[in-house]
Each structure stands twice: as C-alpha cells, then as structure tokens.
C-alpha cells in the first residue's frame, strides 16, 4: 500500500472531525421524535434501562413519559396520523411564539419519574435485536433524572459520534486491506460524511447507528480473512458478524456471505477446515439465543412484524411478479439519497437526478472495468458482500409490497445506508482507473455532494424547522430567511431544536465552510495524482 504522507494523515483526521461536527449539528437540529420511529426505539432503550427486560412485540408498551411528550412536539402528517398524537408542523409553525414556548416549557417539565409508568400505546419496534439498545441503556439509566429533551440529545450524540468513528475506522481498514491509494478512502469518507441520509439514519435513537458501520466492518474482516487466512482473523470475523446479528436482523444476509468466504479459504487450503467451521459456529452460537427466541415468540427467524406467523412463499413469488421494479428502483434511489426525516420532505428532483445520474455513470464505469476482468480477488469479496445485501433489499421490497398490499414498493431508505461506504469504495476504484472521464466523474461527485450538504442545512432543514418554509424551498429566499436569523428572529427553531439556534447556525456555517475546503483539497490531490508520474492510482489489488 502506498505510504501516507503527513498531509494526508492530517486529512484523515480532518475528515473525522468533519463527520463528527455534522453529527453534532444534525442531532441538535432534529426536533424531538423527528427521527425515523424514534419514540419507539427510545421506548426499547427505556425497557432495558428501567426494567432490565427485553421487550416483546405485541406486549411491550411505551412509557407514560414518552406518550406525554408526543403531544408537545411538532410532527409530520404521516407520524401524527400513525401515532394519533403530536402537533402537525404546519399548525405548530402557525402558533404564536408564546404558545410554542409554552409547549417547550411543558416538554422540559415532563416528570422523568413517569418513565416507570405504562401507557396504552404499543411499541412496534420491540422485535429488534438488543445490542445497540443495550449499549445505550446504561447511559439512559445514568441520566434518568435529566429532562427528556436533554437526555434524548445526549443519547443521540453518543450513537451518532460512535457511528462516525466506527465507519471512519472500518472504511480506512477496508481500503488498507485492498491496498488502495490514499485518495480513494479520502474521497469515499468525504462523500459519506456529506450525505444527508447517513445522518438521518444514525443521528436519532435507533439501532442503525451501530448497524451501518458494522456491515463495513464485516466486509473488512472478510477481506482480511481472504488475504490473511489465519484462525485469529476468522475469530474476528465471527465476533463482528455476531455483533451485527445482535444489532439488526438484516445481518442474516451476511451469514451466507461470511460462510462462503470461510469455505473459500478452507477450499484453497489456506485455513484448516476445523478452524473455519469453528469461526462460523462461534458467530451462530453467540447470536442463536436471540433468533431461537424469535422462533418461539413470533414463529419466524427475523422477528419482523411483516413475517409474524410465517410468510407464504407462493404469495411472495406472485407479489414479486407484480412489483413495478423500475419505479421501485427509482423510489429506493431517491429516498436513500435524501429524505427529510419523519416529515418526509424531499430534495428537488433536478438535484436528485444529478446525484443519481452521477452514481449510475460511475456504476457503468465500474461494470465496464469488471467486464474487462480487472477486478482482483479481494475486491470480489467486497463485491460479493454488497450483492448479498442487495439481494436482501430486493427481498425486503417484495415483503413490503406483499404486506402493504401494493402500497409500498421500496425498502426503508435507512436500510440502504449500509451499502454507502463499501459501494462508494467500489465506484471510486472504477473511476480512478478510467482516465480523464473517470476523474471528471470523481470531481463531479465530490462537488455535487458538497453542494448537497450545504443545501441540506442552509436551504432545506434549518429554514424548515424554523418555520420559514411551508412548501418548496428556493435559493432566492435565502437572503430573506437569513436576514431574519441575523436580526435575532429564529422562528420555531427556538423551541423545536434541541440545541440553541445561534449555536446551530454557527455550526452549519462551519460545516459548510469545511466541506468546501475539503472538496477543494480533494480536487488538488486528484489533479496531482493524475498528472504526476508514477501515478498512485496504478496499483494491484491483492489476489
């Protein structure tokens, strides 16, 4: 692997800082319970921290504390309809400022002791594996007397910052094992840390903060086993896979992938069959109690609501035949690129189409490279892992279509974030080996995602949560909005955000400035690497 210069080592640290600042900003900007299904995920944490029990789907309910808070916060139409509580955002923004302040005061005064009381509202997130919630539970118990908004913010920050750090480490490790030049992990991490849906996924209380980086860690350990087939490496793969299985059920899709890598290493006589079998057995043994519990309680392995009581194979096949797959792919792509949290706001179609067009072009470049047989053995391991999870997303699409009787045609957009870092890694490998055209796409992606992260805060999320936009946001409205901010009028941002508005605006300005500087530095690195021989993009992947 080409050695890292001191400048690029510092660049890695700068990228980690950039991701951490984004995580703090996003977690503090997001109103209480505006994260996807957040009150129900937090209810899981409370069940573990306050009662020391694992929840059971259909029996576990939300605490009185959570239910009381739902009436005091703004919510999107879909959420308000789903839970039957909350003030719809448009109504919240029309309230006089004093009425909003009164709601926030009452929210701050919800008695933390009411967390011990049961409501009548069932917790539909009670079926998830427990690891991510169990890791947050001790901190929830430690802060049990802290007002709910501050407690939720602290837990969000713990999960979000851990996700940024773990994904940063996992991506750098994966790229190092593939012996890629520094420019590729730098570009991958910049685009990941400039993706709004990454923060929409990990910056609220849920299990995704752990699941997203764990999948990249599974891939990195699988590549490590392929390149260095030792028993200790197999044990590491088993432990990371077991952690994934105890975090989210979709890691079941990684079991055949991990088993396939182990079998391949054994078949090539680089790992004893007994050691390989022991590594897979270890992963399954650690996770097995949870999945046996699912079979006992819900009569299915994953514990998903859609599959309770079993799934009729014939009906799923018929559902797959009726899905409009092109529309499903487009919806999945658009929502996984940008979705405005529980309020389900969308990015402009033109911007989304540019992002999607760049990704499709990069994918075509990568496929052309693959057709020419330039994919190394270790890279094939990463490709196999991403394809396994893609197959799981296809199954999720079929299951969603079947369970909603055709109303839903795509998997949840936060599921797709698992593929963000490894997928971008593969795309940037392809771009780096395709001359000026590849480099042009490389730079276009870096600067497009710079624009999108600036747009996400400056035009979409901050003005919306301040109540300044009710419909489509336009760049021409920026002077009017920010004149109000500069005059000290923060609108609803004073009462719905979890951090002070002035701090959030300063953070947003810092994050956008840092994004532009990092993008410019990446452009310089890319330009120099392309022009100056010997090019660090001429490498051979481990085979």
Note the beta-strand portion. under 5%
Overall form: globular
- Main β-sheet description: 2 strands, antiparallel
* SSE order, one letter for each helix or strand: HHEHEHEHHEHHHHHHHHHHHHHHHHHH
Count the E strands: 4
The order of strands across the largest sheet is 1-4
Percent in helix: 55-70%
- Over all CA atoms, what is the radius of gyration? 23 Å
Please state the structural category. mainly alpha
Show unreliable segments.
Answer: 531-543
Number of helices: 24
The pLDDT mean sits at 90
Query: What separation lies between the terminal Cα atoms?
Result: 14 Å
Q: What are the defining features of this structure?
A:
543 residues; globular; two-stranded parallel sheet; disordered C terminus; single chain
């Amino acid at each position: 692997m080409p050695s890292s210069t001191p400048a690029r080592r510092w660049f890695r640290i700068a990228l980690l800082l950039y991701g951490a600042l984004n995580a703090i900003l996003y977690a503090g900007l997001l109103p209480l319970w505006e994260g996807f299904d957040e009150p129900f995920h937090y209810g899981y944490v409370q069940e573990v921290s306050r009662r020391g029990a694992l929840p059971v789907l259909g029996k576990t309910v939300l605490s009185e504390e959570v239910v009381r808070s739902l009436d005091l916060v703004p919510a999107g139409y879909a959420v308000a309809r789903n839970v039957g509580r909350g003030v719809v955002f448009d109504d919240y923004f029309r309230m006089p400022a004093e009425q909003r302040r009164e709601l926030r005061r009452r929210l701050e005064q919800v008695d933390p002791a009411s967390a011990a009381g049961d409501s009548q509202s069932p917790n539909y997130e009670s079926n998830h594996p427990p690891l991510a919630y169990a890791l947050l539970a001790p901190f929830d118990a430690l802060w049990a007397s802290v007002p709910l908004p501050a407690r939720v913010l602290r837990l969000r920050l713990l999960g979000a910052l851990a996700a940024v750090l773990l994904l940063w480490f996992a991506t750098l490790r994966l790229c190092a094992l593939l012996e890629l030049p520094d420019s590729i992990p730098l570009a991958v991490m910049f685009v990941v840390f400039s993706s709004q849906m990454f923060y929409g996924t990990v910056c609220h209380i849920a299990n995704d903060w752990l699941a997203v980086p764990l999948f990249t860690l599974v891939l990195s350990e699988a590549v490590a086993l392929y390149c260095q087939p030792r028993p200790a490496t197999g044990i590491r793969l088993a432990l990371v896979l077991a952690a994934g299985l105890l975090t989210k059920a979709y890691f079941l899709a990684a079991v055949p992938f991990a088993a396939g890598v182990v079998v391949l290493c054994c078949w090539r006589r680089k790992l004893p069959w007994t050691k390989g079998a022991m590594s897979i057995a270890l992963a399954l043994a650690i996770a097995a109690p949870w999945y046996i519990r699912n079979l006992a309680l819900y009569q299915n392995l994953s514990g998903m609501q859609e599959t309770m009581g079993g799934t009729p194979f014939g009906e799923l096949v018929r559902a797959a035949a009726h899905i409009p797959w092109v529309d499903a792919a487009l919806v999945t792509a658009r929502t996984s690129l940008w979705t405005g949290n529980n309020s389900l706001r969308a990015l402009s179609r033109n911007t989304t189409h540019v992002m999607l067009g760049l990704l499709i072009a990069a994918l075509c470049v990568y496929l052309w490279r693959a057709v020419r047989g330039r994919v190394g053995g270790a890279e094939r391991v990463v490709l196999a892992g991403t394809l396994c999870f893609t197959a799981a997303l296809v199954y999720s699409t079929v299951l969603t279509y079947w369970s909603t009787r055709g109303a839903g045609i795509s998997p949840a957009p936060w599921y797709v974030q698992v593929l963000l870092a490894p997928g971008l890694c593969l795309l940037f490998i392809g771009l780096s080996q395709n001359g000026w055209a590849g480099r042009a796409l490389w730079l276009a992606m870096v600067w497009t995602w710079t624009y999108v992260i600036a747009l996400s805060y400056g035009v979409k999320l901050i003005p919306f949560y301040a109540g300044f936009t009710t419909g489509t946001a336009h760049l021409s409205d920026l002077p009017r909005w920010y004149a109000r901010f500069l005059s000290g009028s923060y609108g609803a941002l004073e009462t719905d955000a979890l951090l002070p508005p002035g701090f959030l605006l300063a953070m947003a300005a810092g994050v956008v400035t840092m994004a532009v500087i990092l993008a410019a530095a990446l452009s310089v690195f890319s330009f120099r690497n392309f022009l100056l021989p010997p090019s660090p993009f001429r490498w051979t992947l481990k085979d």
